[in-house]
Amino acid sequence: MADPRFFDNHGPFALADLCTKLGLAIPQGADGTALIHDVASLSGAVAEHLSFFAGDRAEAAFAQTAAGFCLVPAKGKAMSGPQRSVLIPCASVQHAFAAAAELFYPDSNRIAPAYDTAIDPTAKIGEGVKMGPGVVIGPGAEVGDGAHLGPNTVICRGVSLGRDCEIAGNSTIMCAHVGDRVLMLPGAQIGQPGFGFASSAQGHIKIPQLGRVIVQDRVEIGACVTIDRGTLGDTVIGEGTKIDNLVQIGHNVYMGRHCIVVGQVGLAGSAVLGDFVVLGAQAGVADHARVGSGARLAGRTGVVPGQIIEGARDYGGVPAKPVREWMREMYALNAMIKKPKKDGND
User: Fold this and answer.
1) Residues 313, 324: contact at Cβ < 8 Å?
2) Contact yes or no for 247/228 (Cβ under 8 A)
3) Each residue of 4-23: pLDDT tens digit?
4) What is the pTM of this model?
5) 45 falls in which pLDDT band (50, 70, 90)?
6) From CA 216, how far away is CA 59, in angstroms rounded?
7) N or C: which end of the chain has fewer CB within 10 A?
C-alpha cells in the first residue's frame, strides 16, 4: 500500500467500475458494488485491497495472501487460489495491474515536482540546519537537527531526514525516510521510480512505482549513486552500509547492515543482501538473487537471477561460484588455450 506522505490515492473504486476501466469481465458470483480502496503486494494486502499474482515465484505469498481481490492469469492453477480472494482473470496480469495502479495513483511517476516556494511552509526544519543556495524542501518534509544541505539539493514532499545528515549539492531525495548521520555525496538520486514495465508487441507500459526507500542510520552514499524506490514495498539500505560512487540499486532491493559496495556495482530489483556483504567493483546481482551474510564477491562477479549465494565465503566468476573453484576453472581454461597444436598429420 502506498505511503500517503508521498502519494495521493484517487480511490476507492467499485469492482464493476474497475473491471470496466481495465477491460475485464466481473468474476462470476462477485459483488460488483464491492469497493476496492487500494493496491498492495500479496503479503501487504488486506480485504479492501487489490493485489496480483503473475507466476510461480510468488506462489507461497499467493497462497497466504489476505487480499480481497487479486488479478491472476486467465489460464493456469492460479484460478484455484485463496477462497477469501475474488480472483480476476486477465490475459496479462502485469498490464492489468499497471492500469489499475495508474487509476489509483495517476501522479505516482511524476519526477519533476513543481512547488510554489523553495521552502514549503508546512516543512519542519530542525535546529541548526544549514542550507546552501538553491535548496528546495517540499510540503510536509522533515529535516532533522544539525543537517547540512548542499547547493541545489531537493528534499521532496513527505521526505524525512534524520539528525546530523550531510547531503551534498545537486542531490535529490524523494519518497524516502533517511536515518541519522547519513552522508550523501554530490549528485545522489534517492527514491526515483524503479525500472518496471509491462511489455508487449505494442511497446512498454510503465508500472507505477508506489514504494519507498528506507536508508538507516550512518549510511554513506557515494557520488551519483541511484537508489530506486520499491514498486509496492520498500527498498532498504541497512545501518552502517557504505556505498561507493556510481552504484545502481534497483527497486525492492534489501541490503543488510554494514555492507561494502564498491564503484559501478549494479543490484537488480528484489535482490537481497545479508549483513556485512562485500561487493567488488562492477559486480552484479540479478533480480531475486540472494547473497548470504558475510559473503564477498570479487570484482565483476555476476550473481544470476534467482541464485542463492551462501554466506561467509568468497566468490568470483559468472555465474558466481566459490573463488577457488572459479580460479581452477580459469587456470584450466588458460592451459587449454596455450596448449600446443598437433600437426595436421596426427
Assistant:
1) no
2) no
3) 999 999 999 999 999 999 99
4) 0.93
5) very high
6) 30
7) C
If you count them, how many residues does the chain have? 346
Nearby residues of 195 by Cβ (< 8 Å), 6 or more positions away: 228, 250, 251, 269
Cβ atoms of 101 and 108 within 8 Å: the answer is yes
Domain spans, the chain: 13-104, 175-328
Distances (CA, A) of 322 to 252, 295, 335, 336: 27, 10, 20, 22
For helices 93-104 and 15-22, the axis angle rounded to 10 degrees is: 120
Contact 101, 209 (CB under 8 A): no
Ordered strands of the 321-322 beta sheet: 130-131, 148-149, 166-167, 183-184, 220-221, 242-243, 260-261, 278-279, 296-297, 314-316, 321-322
What DSSP state is assigned to residue 194?
Answer: P
User: Is residue 180 a contact partner of residue 165, using CB atoms and an 8 Å limit?
Assistant: yes
Mean pLDDT for the stretch of residues 144-165: 98
Q: Which string of b and e fits 137-157 if b means at least 16 CB within 10 Å?
A: bbbbbbbbebbbbbebbbbbb
Question: How many CA within 13 A on the CB side of residue 87?
Answer: 19
d(CA 106, CA 5): 15
* 236 has a pLDDT exceeding 70: yes
**CATH superfamily ID and name for 175-328:** Hexapeptide repeat proteins (2.160.10.10)
- Cite the active site residues: 251
Name the CATH superfamily housing domain 13-104: MurE/MurF, N-terminal domain (3.40.1390.10)
> Is a pLDDT exceeding 60 seen at residue 197?
yes
- Within this chain, domains 13-104 and 175-328 share the same CATH topology: no
CB of 313 closer than 8 Å to CB of 325: no
Which of 224, 218, 294, 292 has its CA nearest to residue 254?
Answer: 292
